[in-house]
Amino acid sequence: MTLRLGILASGRGTNLQAILDATMIGELKAEVVIVASDNPKALALERAKERTIETLALPGDRIDGQKLEDRIIKAFRRERVDLVVLAGFMRLLSPTFISFFRHRIINIHPSLLPAFPGLEAQRQAIEYGVKVSGCTVHYVDEGMDTGPIILQQAVKVQDGDTRESLAERILHQEHRLLLEVIHLIAEDRIYLEGRTVRERRSDE
Ligand code: GRF
Hints:
There is one protein chain. This protein has helices spanning about 15-25, 45-50, 65-80, 95-100, 120-130, 165-185, and strands at about 5-10, 30-35, 55, 85, 105-110, 130-140, 150-155, 190-195, 195-200. By secondary structure, it is α/β, with parallel strands linked by helices. Helix 1 packs parallel to helix 6 (about 165-185) and helix 5 (about 120-130) crosses helix 6 (about 165-185). It binds 5-O-phosphono-beta-D-ribofuranosylamine. 5-O-phosphono-beta-D-ribofuranosylamine binds near residues 9, 13, 87, 171 and 174.
């Protein structure tokens, strides 16, 4: 069975692009069925349209959060979305949205959580002076970047790194990590035990 993906993105959409490219060459048993954004100008929407994927553009600054989520839920249910992927989505989802897709929403975050949750994680890492940062893919719960961690990738902070140079190296790893997690979910290879994500043994 092909995993039907609903993507939420607010910006340039390079993570979305990585998913689109991988699904196109059959690298993932998944298909992007809809891309929604709270920013009608998001480049992510253009990337979806180029592949003739359905899009939903919502003016996040002009409609209230509840209405925005209702529209997304309606569209995602209509498209029978199995997994919601937050790929640079700059809003906190409400408990109602999360309960609709409980354990079926993942997020990519550019730090090694629980360090540096929230906005500008790469800047936070540089300012703190850590020697290692990275990225995390996690299930989404009601908190800010607090859900169960699925996979993480460390990235070394180099002498002279700026927020931009670190962000660029992390982004490269984000694309790979996100695809790896979608692959694990599409193959039904992970499950939750409490808040710990475990991988099934191949003989299970
Ligand atoms: C990424 O760094 C992601 O971790 C964060 O927002 C950024 C989105 O990048 N949540 P893109 O829009 O996928 O290029």
